[in-house]
Specification:
The complex is a heterodimer of chains A (221) and B (299). With 221 residues, chain A is α/β, with parallel strands linked by helices. In chain A, helix 3 packs across helix 4, helix 3 runs parallel beside helix 5 and helix 4 packs across helix 5. Chains A and B meet through helix 2 and helix 3 of A and helix 8 of B.
Chain lengths: 221, 299
């Protein structure tokens, strides 16, 4: 489902954010990417949905080389993805509903279905009672959950999440991880970046470790 | 897919129009004023063209007879004129009738005429033609023939006036298009910049839309709709203002214009011209938005 071949990324000389990263995530797999801050986890996710273009290398998503696709095909691939950004990227002047519905609007979902799906997604992250609140009025943790709801609302084929539980209390983080597991069981490929070793230990699974932009040789399961 | 989202596009455009209402009010004013200027000149041009058309349809030649021509010799001239196959009607206007007509048209000048102590108006023969579209060359040849009669002192042919008024109408339209064009161009840049500011203000939203898979068209359509609505509303508002001006102008300036009132009065815009103003406004708004959003999406 996701394949990276010798991917290099340099934002500024002489540092390399990614150094010769090659990896493969199979369809329906649940994969963690871990590493300390600045190890290149976010960059690795960004090249997958092509927010960042690698300096070198090839990226194949769902059988398509995303570096060779025209923009409109990239948007089509993104519509099949759910992305949880580290900085949430919410529209703070809009309501929670609008923030989540935006992922359905680009798909042309009818309004009635949209309301139902948004409600279900918000219930999954325990925010259904805040559906009509302004996003700006939510706490940090609640905003993170809205970002998660937006990523899962369109039943994506691929879910990419960058530190999705970084601001949540341990119980809620555990619950959200459980939710990702559930989504994964329904066939969604999940790639999740985290440096929370406790959660990794508790949930297990395939773990890819990054250090200074390099993928470490050892892989744990 | 675009066809499935008209509600979203309309809602987004309406939301933007409301959210950035102060900026939009400025653009709306500029568009409206630009089109008002264009509309006023079009109304003036309409009137001049209509006058010229009316004059051309009432194509007439007036032969003035010499003062020394006795009354008995006037009828034969009228008979000679009637014999021409071009002539529809010919009517001899005696000096007394001409004087009475003048005093009827200009009662304020009655004292001046009476103080002269004599009738200054010569006898004349008013001629109209069978066919209003009679070629000018044929009429001129006819006039030359009649002018050879020693009883005829002078000739007035209103076709020159009709042509002059028609060309004045064309000049008014051209002046309107020139100044209106400059202002419409200014309106284009203003709309373009207002939309650009709104696009920049909504930059993060557009970025999020693109990250969740929105195509450029999906991002673009609400802005295009917004610009088009703004432009068309400006055009519509300008029609209303032009209507008020056309109604108020004769009331405010009519008395001071005197005889010129007829000439520089305003005839309201035709349906086609009104639709062109609204459509033109919409087009200017659409193109203004298109240019700014296209530049933003390229970066």
């Amino acid at each position: 489902m996701i394949e990276l071949f010798h991917v290099w990324k340099q934002y500024q000389k002489p540092l390399w954010a990614l150094s010769d990263v090659s990896l493969s995530v199979k369809k329906g797999e649940f994969c963690f990417i871990t590493g300390p801050s600045g190890s290149g986890k976010s960059t690795l996710l960004k090249v997958m949905y092509r927010e960042v273009v690698p300096t070198e290398g090839q990226i194949i998503i769902a059988g398509k080389n995303v570096l060779k696709l025209p923009n409109h095909r990239i948007y089509a691939i993104r519509r099949q993805m759910g992305i949880v950004f580290q900085d949430f990227r919410l529209l703070f002047h809009k309501r929670v509903f609008d923030n989540v519905a935006i992922a359905l609007q680009v798909l042309g979902t009818p309004v009635r279905d949209m309301k139902r799906k948004v409600f279900i997604a918000l219930r999954m992250v325990s925010l259904q009672n805040k559906i009509w609140d302004e996003a700006a009025s939510l706490s940090y943790g609640e905003q993170q959950r809205v970002a998660i709801a937006r990523a899962i609302v369109n039943n994506p084929r691929i879910l990419l999440a960058d530190e999705p539980t970084g601001n949540l209390d341990p119980d809620l983080a555990h619950e959200i991880f459980g939710l990702f597991r559930e989504i994964n069981k329904q066939g969604t490929t999940v790639v999740l970046c985290t440096h929370d070793k406790e959660l990794l230990r508790r949930f297990g699974g395939r773990v890819l470790a990054l250090h200074e932009g390099k993928l470490l040789g050892r892989e744990t399961r | 897919m675009i066809l499935r989202k008209p509600r979203y596009f309309v809602r987004e455009a309406a939301r933007n129009l409301w959210h950035f209402k102060a900026r939009h009010a400025i653009s709306l004013t500029i568009i409206c004023l630009s089109f008002v200027i264009l509309g006023v000149f079009l109304c003036l041009s309409n009137n001049l063209r209509e006058k010229s058309r009316a004059m051309a349809q009432n194509l007439a030649v007036v032969f003035y007879l010499g003062e020394s021509v006795p009354a008995a010799e006037r009828r034969p001239v009228e008979e000679e004129i009637r014999r021409s196959p071009l002539v529809g009607s010919a009517r001899l206007v005696e000096p007394d009738e001409a004087s009475a007509r003048f005093l009827g048209d200009f009662p304020d000048l009655k004292d001046i005429v009476l103080n002269l102590g004599l009738n200054p108006f010569p006898a004349s023969i008013e001629v109209s033609f069978k066919d209003p579209a009679t070629p000018a060359e044929a009429i001129l040849a006819f006039i030359e023939g009649i002018k050879r009669n020693p009883a005829v002192a002078d000739v007035q042919f209103n076709r020159d006036w009709a042509d002059k008024i028609a060309s004045l109408g064309r000049v008014a339209a051209a002046v309107g298009l020139f100044f209106g064009g400059i202002l419409v161009l200014a309106a284009f840049f203003i709309i373009s910049n207002v939309i650009k500011l709104i696009v920049i203000a909504r930059g993060s939203e557009i970025e999020i839309l693109r990250l969740v898979g929105a195509t450029n068209t999906f991002v673009r359509v609400p802005f295009l709709l917004e610009g088009t609505i703004l432009g068309a509303a400006g055009g519509l508002l300008s029609i209303g203002l032009v209507f008020i001006l056309v109604r108020l102008f004769p009331a405010a300036a009519g008395q001071t214009l005197g005889a010129l009132q007829e000439l520089i009065g305003f005839r309201f815009l035709s349906l086609g011209q009104s639709l062109a103003l609204v459509g033109g406004g919409g087009l200017v708004g659409f193109l203004g938005s298109l240019s700014s959003i296209a530049r933003f999406l390229r970066t």
